[in-house]
Fold these 2 entries.
Entry 1:
Amino acid sequence: MAITISFINQKGGVGKTTSSVNTAAILAYKGYSVLLVDMDPQANTTGYYDMYDSEKASIYNVMLRGARVMEVVKQTPVKGLFILPSVLDFSRAELELSQILMRQEYVLKDALSFVSDSFDYILIDCPPARNKVTINALTASDYVVIPTIPDHFAIESITSMGELLNQVKCGVNPNLQVLGILITIDEITSNKKAYKEVLQTGELLPCFDTAIRKNTKLQEAINAHQPINLYDKSCSGSKDYSAFVDELLNKTGSTSGF
Ligand SMILES: Nc1ncnc2c1ncn2[C@@H]1O[C@H](COP(=O)(O)OP(=O)(O)O)[C@@H](O)[C@H]1O
Ligand SMILES: [Mg+2]
């Protein structure tokens, strides 16, 4: 049975896509079979691997047109890493999900249940929103990672995410666990340091020890359509995401590298 992890934050630009793409690739490199699910209509995860195609079936067809996950999944250039792509049209999902009469929150979970034995990890890159699409991701997940920039807005969005997670736990998924806040785009400025320290107390929600330092190589890797561990394995971005994956494997009870 796959372990399913959502990367969520209602704020955009905090590193959800960067974190889910690179975590998925590092897990695949370690030998795990990984499905990366793009739930954002902006389709940045799909575009990362240059796989955007508005004509081809996508998460939209899986969630709202009854397509089977395995018919839609594509192999990425990374061995062991598969992607369930998104499209701009997926923005219609919000309205269409609200028109479904029964099990609105379970649409993704039900669809993924058919492929759960085919993967070790299913990682979900969520949209920057507290909406039905995000709730579907959380209902389908065992764990949550919250990529967060340590700044003025972080505390507010973490508090709001905490409330949403509690609602999902009480309503549809009592087993959902927060693995932690993942500090991203970390810099040594006094302002960021102060917010980082607040987040690392774990008083709001648990926080990973590893923080992802600001590193332009992570941006360059997108242009090359390569995950950071293939683009430049010695850069700080690659080292930080590797350390994060080791921490994540520890917390999810898996052993690194089999
Ligand atoms: N650690 C980092 N260092 C430098 N740039 C980063 C880092 N993490 C993310 N970025 C850049 O920040 C922008 C937003 O990241 P992204 O992962 O797309 O956020 P989200 O998916 O939350 O909207 C992108 O241009 C990405 O390349
Ligand atoms: Mg994104």
Entry 2:
Amino acid sequence: MKKRVHNFSAGPAILPEEVLAEIKEEFNGYQDIGSTIIEISHRDKTFLDIAENAESSVRRLLNLGDDYKVLFMQGGATLQFSLIPLNFAHKNARASYAEIGSWSSKAAKEASKVCDLEICHSSKENGFNNIEDLSDWVISNNSKFVHYCKNETIQGIRIPYDPNFQLPTFVDMSSCLFSEDIDVTKYDFIYACAQKNFGPSGITLIILRKTLLEKCDQSLPNILRYDMHAQENSMLNTPNTFAWYVAGKMFNWYEKNGGVKEMEKKSIEKSQILYDLIDLGEFYQNPVLKSQRSINNVVFTIKDSNLEQLFLDKAKKYDLHYLKGHRSVGGMRASIYNSMSKESVVALRDFMQDFEKQHG
Ligand SMILES: Cc1ncc(COP(=O)(O)O)c(C=O)c1O
């Protein structure tokens, strides 16, 4: 493999070299089928085995009971912003959404087109830097479900504990699934796009309580109905077979490397390396409440914002790439998902230290 840079992209994000090498090897021909995996039918036994193994692996990794259905869908996490209210809050029923960063706010905005939207908590006023305890969110009795995002990729803030709501709980875990240890039984509907922690973009993992399938709006076209996707085992139409195949490889890699608990331990350790430096002085700043700081997306600014472009340009010379913060918030962001090595994080920390020495 050619020289690789330290890649801090927020998504699509880096994949482990072992996984990439395996894929490359299998593109010479998958097993003995005389084709690659992207050239055969999704209904062929070879692909059905891949799909089945991917699901079994997810079930083991997250300790899923039989009461949960696993779906692989297209349309990214963004499609879920619309499908969730369409299926579960139809006929203008009430649904409760928390606005705790850009992604959960986007989800709420989409839901407002479909249902009677209740904002049960908003941290917009404080710049999305501090989320109220879930037990203080104000939720109507007649609400169909509560929705939030567990890790806000753009603001670098997370809810570090599991919820305990009395109503169905729907959570976007796009940038933290498999790197935070969760008790799945506390959630009714979890979704995550693949391109951060389990492969290329183009596939979204959905884990939902089977009892929810009976509640889907049956007047919707089939392609928009979760119960139809479930009935067809995520093959209502042709899936993204390549992304599904890579996701399966990532799940295997997690199982071989200690599972979700180990990923969480490493994510805490890696993020702490950066937060320790940021908190050491005043040169770098992170505005997020310490106990809610993301362990996957470390955001920071430089006190003298005029230095930020120089920081990014210099970083690139040291092979530290894709550190620019999201275009909507600016600053810097280091995304350090599960495939990111501690060595790369240390390389960034060392660079930040040197940059501060030179310009602080
Ligand atoms: C938390 C979160 N939700 C949703 C999305 C949107 O995902 P997609 O582009 O797959 O629709 C992203 C993408 O970065 C995200 O980070």
